[in-house]
């Protein structure tokens, strides 16, 4: 560990030694500076190259001011991340990041420099002018790395832009907790290992880091996890962190995340927004998916008798209380599972997820935009506050979200896929065309397989694409999509006249409308007819080699 002397402005290295009887440390008492990185920060190499070079960087003023404040409070040494870590050494950087939570925890005091704050309190950039005014929150609170820098140190002092002291963490606990979502128990130094995984990830959900991998690495200390750093792995770092947590802790709240579901397309304008969806894995692809996990209980309560979950090649092996979701038309495909974590303020209510079976005991997440709430009810329909044992079979539980009862709950050992790619929805397969009908163009072309005549969308959006057909020397557009229906989706098709010489198929697709509920009731959305060219089209779901597809049938009517 390198430290900067607050008056000599020299950097020295200190080591922790193992004497056999335990760790011995020659690291002196030190302060620490937490800040947001700006342009021209002073690196270790800048400092070692000489003060003339270091003082030319804008970050030098911040270092000098931090030293002055630490010396004023009686500290001879200070740790500042910009100049006390050799970031050119991947080994040293990895060791520093894995040790950083402990370094902040061991500091005598942590000074938080808020470079954009000018008010008299340490939360907003300026003072409130009125009761309902909400100035911008200081940027320091939005960064991923500063989460542990706020939680780990026992003593935290906040300094505004002009380096004036505006109070301690203890002075502003309520305000800090309100704008960060961090529980006061954690801010006051509570045992983080007792807190649920979902609650801790909730603190990170709205924060940002410059590098995507750091969204995982900045949480290592929060979960007391050590793992190697692999910059370049992208979002896989967050998946890897969760795998390490699963191996270390028995806490099913790690599965209590909610995300964007492809069905969300159906509730908007229906326009194609790109293949940006990721989900359906056993574990979350991003901390943002825990944003709505605030209602999951703060503390986890492990059950020692339950088998520990295991990260395996087939997925996450876990024991869950499950039942078949009989609301679905395909028997044995969808299941409901109880997670052993309290959700909400009513006693006896546990969180739950929906799973889709892909093989005998292999599952993936389904309906990820919803966390279910399961409970046991009495004859009067009221929730029994004594709850139920999620490690024992249950005759009947109610989903409080839909007020639906589900029977025959059994404890199962299953594998939930770790893949963060959703299963493809059924493609649209155009059957061999009749004479005088041929395909002229397709939008989006990247979804079209010319070898099989299949339009394969990545997600079940309200509008999937359009096929430009030439029929009897005229052109007509066939627009395809999905409608929300019960627990799943239903394909629809619609024909539009257009002139290929004047109109682009893209423009026809953009102007097309998703059939309304009233239209679907009056006429099945799975068929349409064009009087102009005498073309009838229908779409129906069918299993092709045991794979669900949407079969498009085109028929000329004389």
TrEMBL record:
It comes from Colletotrichum zoysiae. The lineage of its organism: Eukaryota, Fungi, Dikarya, Ascomycota, Pezizomycotina. It comes from the Eukaryota. PANTHER family: HET DOMAIN-CONTAINING PROTEIN (PTHR10622). Residues 30-129 form the Heterokaryon incompatibility domain. It holds the Pfam family HET. Signal peptide: none annotated. This is HET-domain-containing protein. Residues 236-260 form the DUF8212 domain.
């Amino acid at each position: 560990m390198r430290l900067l002397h607050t008056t000599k402005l020299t950097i020295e290295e200190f080591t922790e030694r193992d004497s056999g009887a335990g760790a011995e440390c020659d690291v002196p008492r030190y302060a620490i500076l937490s800040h947001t990185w700006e342009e021209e920060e002073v690196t270790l190499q800048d400092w070692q190259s000489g003060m003339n070079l270091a003082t030319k960087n804008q970050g030098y003023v911040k270092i000098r001011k931090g030293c002055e404040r630490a010396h004023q409070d009686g500290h001879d040494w200070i740790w500042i991340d910009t100049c006390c870590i050799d970031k050119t050494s991947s080994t040293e950087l990895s060791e520093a990041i894995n040790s950083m939570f402990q370094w902040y925890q061991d500091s005598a005091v942590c000074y938080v420099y808020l470079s954009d704050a000018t008010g008299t309190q340490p939360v907003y950039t300026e003072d409130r002018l009125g009761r309902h005014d909400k100035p911008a929150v200081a940027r320091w609170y939005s960064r991923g790395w500063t989460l542990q820098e706020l939680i780990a140190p026992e003593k935290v002092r906040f300094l505004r832009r002009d380096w004036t002291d505006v109070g301690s963490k203890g002075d502003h606990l309520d305000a800090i907790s309100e704008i960060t979502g961090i529980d006061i128990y954690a801010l006051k130094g509570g045992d983080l290992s007792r807190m649920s995984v979902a609650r801790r990830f909730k603190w990170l959900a709205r924060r940002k880091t410059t590098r995507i991998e750091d969204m995982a690495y900045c949480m290592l200390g929060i979960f007391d996890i050590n793992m190697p750093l692999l910059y370049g792995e992208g979002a896989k770092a967050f998946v890897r962190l969760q795998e390490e947590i699963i191996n270390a802790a028995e806490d099913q709240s790690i599965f209590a995340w909610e995300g964007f579901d492809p069905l969300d397309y159906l509730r908007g304008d229906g326009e194609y927004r790109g293949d940006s969806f990721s989900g359906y894995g056993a574990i979350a692809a991003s901390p943002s998916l825990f944003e709505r996990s605030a209602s999951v209980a703060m503390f986890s309560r492990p059950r020692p008798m339950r088998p520990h979950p295991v990260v395996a090649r087939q997925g996450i092996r876990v024991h869950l209380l499950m039942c078949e979701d009989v609301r679905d038309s395909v028997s044995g495909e969808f299941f409901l599972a109880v997670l052993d974590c309290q959700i909400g303020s009513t006693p006896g209510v546990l969180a739950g997820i929906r799973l889709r079976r892909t093989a005998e005991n292999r599952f993936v997440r389904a309906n990820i935009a919803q966390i279910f709430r399961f409970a046991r009810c009495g004859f009067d329909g009221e929730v029994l506050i004594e709850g139920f044992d999620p490690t024992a079979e249950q005759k009947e539980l109610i989903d409080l979200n839909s007020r639906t009862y589900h029977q025959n709950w059994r404890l199962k050992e299953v594998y939930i896929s770790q893949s963060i790619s959703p299963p493809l929805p059924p493609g649209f397969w155009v059957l061999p065309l009749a004479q005088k009908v041929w395909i002229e163009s397709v939008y989006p072309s990247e979804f079209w397989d010319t070898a099989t005549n299949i339009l394969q969308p990545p997600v079940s959006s309200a509008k999937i694409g359009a096929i430009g057909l030439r029929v009897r020397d005229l052109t007509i557009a066939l627009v395809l999509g999905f409608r929300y229906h019960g627990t799943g989706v239903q394909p629809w098709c619609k024909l539009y006249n257009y002139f290929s010489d004047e109109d682009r198929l893209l423009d026809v697709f953009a102007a097309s409308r998703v059939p309304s509920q009233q239209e679907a009731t009056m006429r099945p959305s799975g068929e349409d007819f064009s009087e102009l060219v005498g073309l009838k089209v229908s779409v129906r779901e069918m299993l092709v080699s045991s794979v669900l597809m949407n079969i498009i049938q085109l028929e000329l009517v004389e």
